[in-house]
């Protein structure tokens, strides 16, 4: 058999499969190879052809092993011989290569078709979710991508960590954990902010797991990521338009639907558009304890970021500031440090200042400790019957008792007589999640 037998066979099978359309599984590939071999190709060549086509047509082709690796969050193809992966410590070059530019293009177009989207010269880029895989696809074809087809795959793994796991992994320390538990127990509305891949969804999921079991959580997401360890969770997921441009279900529409589902806690997985208007309106009309994530590099950028998003929904900056100041109480900032760990960097509170300006005032920082916003946070916790984790006692009127505890830190001016709350069984389950904090 000539050296060109396998490539010729592979090309004939590609043509057959492209003409037939539909999904190409292992069985379909084997049937197509047998039909095109016509009995004149040896068994070894048939097997080689099946393996080559399987890598190309099944799943994500040569990228499939990366998507199955639980440590991988991103797979990026910038050229046939240039593939990068992120396993949590930054991008690293992978040894996988494609035969040529056409192979990368075919993979991108096949994945787009599997997601019900179009990717060709007339529509040279696509942003879609691959069905049943939790993978977000973005691809750009040349000449828009000047150096060749670019493929970006983001693996959206369900966030299942709890606070115990986050503390063990160094994401939060004892003080940070106590703060987070107090925020949840007091039903403060909060936003988790940070950059891409900073761990926003992981932290949010861990906090939702601390919500009392008797409460109903309704989650609205653009992609299925939040999987809190909680017995009563309803998840709504948006839907992009199909290839005909119909069938879109927007996040803001789902927020409206969620309000009719009797939520105790309304959560928007990622606030990225006009749905911020509906979320803030809901938080201002009796839906305490709501939450969401926002892309922002620091807490101080949050007001400006929300103003930009609210403008997409037709809300004026002054109206947004009024809604935001009344609706959101806390901002939790997470970021990815140099060694790849995700950490809770800071906790801030929203404060309305003179001139109708809303700012985020730091209350606690991972490196700097307590800050000026601590008094505001303590006041909000006290108003809701939850003791601040850094001091004092909770009134016995709400059934709390106090026990000795070590001082949280020297910045408090605290001594051995400091105490934290040991909640009575009569208290709400959320308060019962508070525990003594060691130095």
Automatic annotation (TrEMBL):
Question: Where is the secretion signal located?
Answer: none
Q: What GO molecular functions are on record for this protein?
A: ATP hydrolysis activity
Any Pfam family the entry gives: T2SSE
Q: Which residues form the Bacterial type II secretion system protein E domain?
A: 59-332
Tell me the NCBIfam families matching this sequence.
heli_sec_ATPase (TIGR03819)
Family membership noted in the UniProt record: Belongs to the GSP E family.
**Alphabetized PANTHER family for the sequence:** TWITCHING MOTILITY PROTEIN PILT (PTHR30486), TYPE IV PILUS RETRACTATION ATPASE PILT (PTHR30486:SF6)
Protein name in UniProt: Pilus assembly protein CpaF
Q: Which organism is it from?
A: Actinomycetospora corticicola
List the lineage, top down. Bacteria, Bacillati, Actinomycetota, Actinomycetes, Pseudonocardiales
């Amino acid at each position: 058999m000539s050296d060109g037998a396998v490539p010729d066979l592979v090309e004939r099978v590609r043509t057959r499969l492209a003409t037939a359309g539909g999904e190409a599984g292992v069985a379909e590939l084997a049937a197509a190879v047998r039909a095109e071999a016509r009995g004149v190709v040896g068994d070894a060549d048939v097997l080689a052809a099946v393996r080559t086509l399987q890598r190309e047509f099944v799943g994500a082709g040569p990228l499939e092993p990366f998507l199955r690796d639980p440590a991988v969050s991103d797979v990026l193809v910038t050229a046939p011989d240039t593939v990068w992966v992120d396993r949590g410590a930054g991008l690293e070059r992978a040894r996988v290569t494609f035969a040529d530019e056409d192979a990368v293009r075919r993979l991108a177009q096949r994945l787009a078709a599997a997601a019900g989207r179009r990717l060709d010269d007339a529509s040279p880029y696509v942003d879609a979710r691959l069905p049943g895989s939790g993978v977000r696809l973005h691809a750009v074809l040349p000449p828009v991508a000047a150096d060749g087809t670019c493929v970006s795959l983001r693996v959206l793994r369900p966030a299942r960590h709890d606070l115990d796991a986050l503390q063990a992994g160094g994401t939060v320390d004892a003080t940070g954990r106590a703060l987070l538990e107090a925020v949840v127990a007091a039903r403060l509305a909060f936003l988790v902010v940070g950059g891409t891949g900073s761990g926003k969804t992981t932290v949010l999921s861990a906090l939702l797991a601390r919500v009392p079991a008797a409460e109903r959580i309704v989650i609205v997401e653009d992609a299925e990521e939040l999987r809190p360890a909680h017995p009563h969770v309803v998840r709504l997921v948006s839907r992009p338009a199909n290839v005909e441009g119909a069938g879109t279900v927007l996040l803001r529409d789902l927020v409206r639907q969620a309000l009719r589902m009797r939520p105790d806690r309304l959560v928007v997985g990622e606030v990225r558009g006009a749905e911020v208007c509906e979320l803030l309106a809901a938080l201002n009309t009796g839906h305490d304890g709501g939450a969401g994530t926002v892309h922002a590099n620091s807490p101080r950028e949050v007001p400006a970021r929300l103003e930009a998003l609210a403008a997409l929904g037709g809300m004026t900056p002054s109206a947004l500031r009024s809604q935001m100041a009344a609706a959101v109480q806390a901002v939790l900032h997470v970021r990815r440090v140099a060694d790849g760990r995700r950490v809770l960097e800071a906790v801030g509170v929203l404060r309305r200042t003179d001139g109708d300006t809303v700012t985020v005032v730091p209350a606690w920082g991972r490196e700097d400790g307590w800050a000026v916003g601590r008094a505001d946070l303590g006041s909000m916790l006290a108003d809701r019957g939850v003791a601040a984790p850094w001091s004092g006692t909770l009134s016995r009127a709400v059934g709390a008792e106090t026990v000795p505890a070590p001082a949280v830190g020297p910045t408090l001016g605290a001594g051995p007589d400091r105490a934290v709350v040991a909640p009575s069984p009569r208290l709400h389950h959320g308060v019962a999640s508070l525990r003594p904090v060691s130095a």
